[in-house]
Design goal:
It comes from Paenibacillus aquistagni. GO terms for molecular function: ATP binding; phosphorelay sensor kinase activity; protein dimerization activity. It catalyses: ATP + protein L-histidine = ADP + protein N-phospho-L-histidine. This is histidine kinase. This protein has 373 residues and is an alpha+beta fold. It has three domains: 123 residues, no CATH class; 74 residues, Single alpha-helices involved in coiled-coils or other helix-helix interfaces (Up-down Bundle), CATH 1.20.5.1930; 120 residues, Histidine kinase-like ATPase, C-terminal domain (Heat Shock Protein 90). 67% of the residues lie in helices and 10% in strands. The chain contains twelve helices and five strands. Strands 1-2-3-5-4 form a five-stranded mixed sheet. It is elongated and about 120 Å long. The termini are far apart. The C terminus is likely disordered.
Length: 373
């Protein structure tokens, strides 16, 4: 029910402040005798509340009209009751800062200046003795809409930039997949077809002509060596990222962000293929990036261990936990990388607070070649 009265996205930061301010204003106006009388005070407060409600829910021309109406109401109350009521101009100055139009910000700011000018002219007898004490408040109210507009604009542009970077990362990942699939089809496809045909010939000749069958088997061995070489070339063309170097880089980034990192490694890590290690390193990078951007954590732990023949990397922090910001393309990218390796990725709330990201890689994939081969 309250969501229909007050916007949900503003409840956390503004609801309590607005309620306190409105209750105090109503009490002060109704408990103070003035030339407005009770009826005039009630009408002024009603206009104030209507203006506030309209400005609260709109970002277009209705917002500007409501702000100007509210500022005018505050000016009337300040002139007839108490100039200190100009403090409530902050309410409409803040609402004006949510406008999406520069010219509306300009007109509304002019309305703030006019409000103070009217009260200075008709509401204060000794201007220099009383009103000049409010000069810092006047300046802040005048600047506040522009500051809020600039901050919202910067946040919007940063959001667009983050979205564009995530889209580029997705595009690069898809292009890399397409390249690998294309190269596998163009290079390995023909070789594997040859192996299949030679195997069928060897099966036919094994009883009729063993010598010819041996020749076919030799060709199969040669083709297998060619296929192995082609796989090595495809893997070597990928940009390899060392998991060890990525962990060291993560430590530096977290230290710069003021987050303490603890790396717990229970045993020597298994040999991973270049593809596996690169994918795991990229997933760690994305998880650490999310920790820095969203977690507000002070401590982060990266644990590397073997669980049931699965290489597991767990990244936990003591931050604010999961939020809608952390459910975007970054998490999707990590899941896609792990799925490509037949692994799994889970993102959940940590038992002690914060977020826990767990990557599990089954150890039955292709392994990184040893120096012996």
């Amino acid at each position: 029910m309250i969501e229909k009265i007050y916007p949900r996205d503003q409840m956390k930061h503004f609801l309590l402040i607005d309620v306190i301010a409105i209750v105090y204003l109503c009490y002060f106006v109704l408990s103070t005798r003035s030339d407005l009388g009770l009826l005039g005070s009630l009408m002024s407060l009603s206009l104030f509340l209507v203006s506030f409600y309209i400005a609260l829910w709109h970002r277009n021309i209705y917002l500007l009209a409501a702000v100007l109406s509210g500022l005018g109401t505050i000016a009337v109350l300040s002139i007839f009751i108490d100039p200190n009521l100009l403090m409530f101009g902050f309410i409409f100055a803040e609402l004006l800062g949510r406008s999406k139009s520069k010219w509306q910000i300009g007109v509304g700011t002019a309305g703030i200046v006019l409000m103070h000018a009217l009260v200075a002219r008709w509401g204060v007898n000794d201007f220099y003795a009383k009103y000049m004490m409010h000069l810092p408040i006047i300046i802040i109210q005048i600047l506040l809409p522009s500051i809020l507009y600039i901050r919202a604009r910067a946040a919007s542009l940063q959001g667009q930039l983050d979205s564009a970077n995530e889209q580029l990362e997705q595009y690069a990942l898809q292009e890399e997949r397409h390249r690998i699939a294309r190269d596998l089809h163009d290079t390995l496809g023909q070789t594997l077809t040859m192996i299949k045909l030679k195997s069928e010939l060897a099966a036919r000749w094994v009883d009729k002509d063993p010598v010819q069958a041996k020749e076919e088997l030799k060709d199969i061995m040669d083709s297998s060596r060619i296929a192995l070489k082609q796989v090595r070339e495809l893997v070597s063309e990928m940009k390899f990222i060392s998991l060890t170097s990525e962990l060291a880089h993560s430590r530096k980034l977290l230290h710069t962000a003021g987050i303490e990192l603890e790396i717990v490694e229970q045993r020597t890590p298994p040999l991973l293929s270049s593809v596996e290690e690169t994918m795991m390193a990229l997933s760690v990078r994305e998880a650490i990036t999310n920790t820095i951007k969203h977690s507000q954590a002070q401590h982060c732990t990266i644990q590397l261990q073997m669980i049931d023949n699965r290489y597991t990397i767990s990244i936990t922090d003591d931050g604010v936990g999961l939020s809608h910001k952390e459910g975007g393309n970054g998490i999707l990218s990590m899941k896609e990388r792990m799925q490509a390796l037949n692994g799994t990725l889970t993102v959940e709330c940590s038992p002690d607070g914060g977020t826990a990201v767990t990557m599990m890689l089954p150890l039955h994939q292709l392994r990184k070649e040893s120096t012996a081969t």
